[in-house]
Amino acid sequence: MSLVDHLRELRNRLAIGVLAIFVVTVVAMFFAKDIMSLLTEPLPNCLEEEPGSGRCADLVQQGLTSPFTTYVKVSLFTGLVLASPVWLYQLWAFIAPGLHQNEKRYSAAVVAFGAPLFLTGVYVAHWLLPRAIPVLLQFTPDNAGNLVTVSDLLDITVRLAIAFGFAFELPLVLVMLNLGGVVSGRRMLGWWRGMVMGIAVFAAIVTPTDPMSMLALAVPVTALYFVATGIALLNDRRRGRAAGPELGDDEASDLDLTPEPIDAPGRVAPPRSSGDDGPRRSGGFDDVT
């Protein structure tokens, strides 16, 4: 495909993914209030806790347009999450034509794992919030109350959900790169120190300040990284068996240097052309020979 064809293909894939998100977002607007209640549930309400204890907060809305803005944010977030199977498939469908025919058969398996991994990350983020928010509220001074806006709470929820969802896609990306022949399993295994440190730093940045939140993201993503590395090593071994033995960079190939007999020399028939004044040939050899 030419560059223009690739750009046209990318445009079509993006259009389908955005359209799927838009359709799900419109449907989610009819259930936005219920979804909003589900997302704000991790915040301990002062109606159930002792006021002024520092372990609860009052949920408020600020501004005239804030409720509508929050309504749209919740719907758009729901559309992004629930439409993930569609846009993940479009992403893979754009990359798949660059693979060989025997590598395309993994497309369905990769796409089938992509959406569950993303949704698992979102679920882990939702599971984490009720345990992380009370830890953050414990820093409240004595006899002081907390006022948390719905917009701020949803921003934290959406940020964590998207960060966890895409972090859980790391093994999928690595497996895709291995299937495409971009990176080998041995190279992925050699990255393990840097990957573990990078995952820990990423988890410390995107999660709240408590160690439990950091470990809740770093530990499963690190485990998924090693699982992806194992899959890549197995795929490289299978590919190596199909291609035959592979030599190292400093290993010489086995060459048969035994001389082979050559055929006996034969006579060459003299060319016959009218008006040829060149040297005469006798018995297949010219006069000089």
TrEMBL record:
Quote the function comment for this protein: Part of the twin-arginine translocation (Tat) system that transports large folded proteins containing a characteristic twin-arginine motif in their signal peptide across membranes. Together with TatB, TatC is part of a receptor directly interacting with Tat signal peptides.
Q: Indicate the family of this protein.
A: Belongs to the TatC family.
Keyword Cell membrane included in the entry's annotation:
yes
Q: What is the lineage of its organism?
A: Bacteria, Bacillati, Actinomycetota, Actinomycetes, Kitasatosporales
Quaternary structure, per UniProt, is:
The Tat system comprises two distinct complexes: a TatABC complex, containing multiple copies of TatA, TatB and TatC subunits, and a separate TatA complex, containing only TatA subunits. Substrates initially bind to the TatABC complex, which probably triggers association of the separate TatA complex to form the active translocon.
Q: Which UniProt keywords apply?
A: Cell membrane, Membrane, Protein transport, Translocation, Transmembrane, Transmembrane helix, Transport
Protein name (database record): Sec-independent protein translocase protein TatC
Membrane-related topology note: Multi-pass membrane protein
UniProt keyword Protein transport, yes or no: yes
Chain segments carrying region Disordered: 243-289
Q: Which gene encodes it?
A: tatC
Query: Where is there biased composition of kind Basic and acidic residues?
Result: 274-289
Where in the cell? Answer: Cell membrane; Membrane
